[in-house]
Specification:
By secondary structure, the protein is an all-alpha fold. It has two domains: 10-283, Farnesyl Diphosphate Synthase (Orthogonal Bundle); 294-389, no CATH class. It is 74% helix and 1% strand. It contains 15 helices and two strands. It has helices at 10-18, 23-44, 49-77, 88-113, 115-129, 139-162, 167-188, 192-197, 203-207, 209-233, 241-254, 259-283, 301-319, 323-346, 365-389; strands spanning 359-360, 363-364. Strands 1-2 form a two-stranded antiparallel ribbon. Helix 2 runs parallel beside helix 6, helix 3 (49-77) packs antiparallel against helix 6 (139-162) and helix 7 packs antiparallel against helix 12 (259-283). The termini are far apart. The mean pLDDT is 91.
Length: 390
């Protein structure tokens, strides 16, 4: 039996089997498995390489199964693909081999981490094996299979390392699920015309491109809002809000892009999103002592921050050739800001400690600068975004 379709021999067989390892498709689930293991190690203080390896190998085998089965169905059953490197027998051999590897790895998870971790890991193989032709014919399961597998990978790895599942890791899995569902809907829209021609019911086909894009953007927003809510109620550390800002900026740029470019931006943004969440959950950068404390500047601290951010705002306005327009707007806003600032200081809403002590017109001189710097920074960003859109 020839494993490769085009050439016989062991070397061709190895190349054909290796061709089913797609890093772009397989790296996220395995990376998330390792992320779950790292979070568990951070929570328990112990890191067991055998448990980590068993779970990561199980996830790899599940995703490999999904890729081989999907390619087999699309080429040999549906005739959708133009070519496939494996023969029918090669596909079956690859599926059997991946299944055995998954079973061995799952047994390792069970023996080293217990039944709960194994129970959370086992469905990932089912999602992979039954994706085609069963699950990919329904818009819900076709879109949700891969994101659900990644969420299970995270929760299963954490359970394997920590022996339990916490609200934090469940919240993180839910956030990733929402974000990845949104990205998958946009990704599927790339093949809208072809999917319609073969009666494949993706979300974009069922809802139409406009409504599908709105649903995808709603899911992305829900994921980001979830992080903010979890951070607000204490399930996530405060530092996770930085991931919202970073991915939110990428999502805002991708919003105007066509499906292919939007998918490329969002996938790369999702890596940054996950990395920042992991850093925040592991190191908690916004708790405890500050890594850099400019309070050593004493009475010039507030002034120094205004100079730094003011310079940034000025640079943006100069770059966008909007200095004159911004100056007019700031001149109109300034009197209202002055009255508001004077009143809040008079009634004791806030106090400024690290300032020079110089007052002008009954308010600190730093507040006068603040009323110039903040509008300048906002208008500089606004004008830069408008220029980028045009």
């Amino acid at each position: 039996m020839s494993i490769a379709r085009h050439r016989p021999g062991p070397a061709a067989a190895v190349r054909a089997l290796a061709s089913q390892v797609h890093p772009v498709f397989m790296l996220p689930p395995v990376a998330v498995s390792l992320t779950g293991s790292l979070l568990a190690a951070g929570a328990t203080g112990t890191f067991t390489p055998t448990v980590v390896a068993a779970h990561a190998i199980a996830i790899f085998a599940a995703v490999y199964t999904a890729h081989v089965k999907d390619g087999y169905v699309d080429f040999f059953v549906r005739g959708e693909d133009d070519d496939h490197p494996l023969s029918v027998g090669g596909c079956r051999l690859a599926l059997v081999g991946a299944g055995i590897l998954f079973a061995v790895a799952l047994a390792g998870v069970f023996l080293t981490a217990g039944v709960a971790a194994a129970a959370l890991t086992a469905p990932t193989w089912a999602l992979g094996y039954f994706h085609a032709p069963q699950l990919d014919t329904n818009p819900v399961t076709a879109t949700g299979g891969y994101p659900a597998g990644i969420a299970l990978s995270l929760v299963g790895a954490y359970a394997a390392g920590a022996g339990t599942v916490t609200p934090t890791v469940l919240g993180l899995a839910g956030v990733l699920l929402a974000v990845l569902l949104g990205i998958k809907i946009i990704d599927d829209a790339q093949d809208l015309g072809y999917d319609r021609s073969i009666d494949k019911r993706t979300v974009a086909v069922v809802l139409g491109p406009t409504r599908a894009r709105r649903l995808a953007e709603g899911l992305l927003a829900a994921g980001l809002l979830g992080v903010a809510v979890f951070a607000a109620v204490g399930v996530f550390p405060t530092g996770t809000i930085l991931a919202v800002f970073a991915f939110g900026a990428v999502a805002a740029i991708a919003r105007r892009a066509e499906p292919r470019l939007a998918t490329m931006l969002l996938v790369r943004g999702a890596y940054v999103f996950l990395a920042l969440l992991l850093v925040a959950l592991w190191y908690r950068p916004m708790t405890g002592p500050l890594p850099i404390d400019i309070g050593v500047l004493g009475p010039y601290t507030y002034l120094a921050t205004e100079i730094a951010f003011g310079a940034f705002g000025l640079a943006l306005l100069v770059r966008a050739d909007a200095l004159a327009r911004a100056g007019r707007t700031i001149a109109v806003v300034y009197p209202l800001a002055y009255v508001w600032d004077w009143y809040t200081l008079e009634v004791g809403v806030f106090a400024i400690e690290l300032r020079t002590g110089i007052d002008l017109l009954a308010i600190p001189i730093e507040e006068h600068l603040f009323m110039l710097v903040v509008p300048a920074l906002v208008l500089g960003i606004h004008e830069s975004l408008r220029e980028s859109d045009e």
